[in-house]
Amino acid sequence: MAARLKQLQSKAGQATQFVSKYGTAYYKQVMEQNKQYIQEPPTVEKCNELSKQLFYTRLASIPGRSESFWKEVDFVKHMWRNRHELKVEDAGIAALFGLECFAWFCAGEIVGRGFTFTGYFV
Fold first, then answer.
1. DSSP label of 35
2. What is the enclosing helix (H) or strand (E) of 46?
3. Could you tell me the residue range of the domain that residue 21 belongs to?
């Protein structure tokens, strides 16, 4: 345990040295490349205004996203009704999609437990 702590401290020291050496130059480069996105004047009031704009813009996009969702649901219903016409490729894609969703669920559960493997695997 002590060896791992020393190793972690060493890595943290290296990271600190790297950031102190290259951090300022990287910051300036990123700010220069993205200056078109910077709002002037950079005040708390401007940040609050932009935050509200983002929130209400996202809120206004809900009807469009809801409409897209229901179109997808209708497409799935149509595919289910006509499942006898379903090709093997389509079924394979659907199975892979379901498997991917399950894998992301499992990964989320593992991350949520702090990267411990219990339940599903043990």
1. G
2. helix 44-60
3. 1-35
Find how far residue 78's CA is from the centre of its chain. Answer: 30
N- to C-terminal Cα separation, the chain: 24
Per-residue pLDDT of the chain (122 residues; tens, 9 = 90+): 778 888 888 888 888 888 888 888 889 999 999 999 988 888 999 999 999 999 999 999 999 999 999 999 999 899 889 888 888 998 899 899 999 999 999 888 888 888 777 665 55
Counting the structural domains of the chain, the total is 2
2 falls within a domain: yes
CB atoms within 10 A of CB 110: 16
Q: How far apart are CA 45 and CA 43, in angstroms?
A: 5
In this structure, how many other beta carbons lie within 10 angstroms of the beta carbon of residue 90? 12
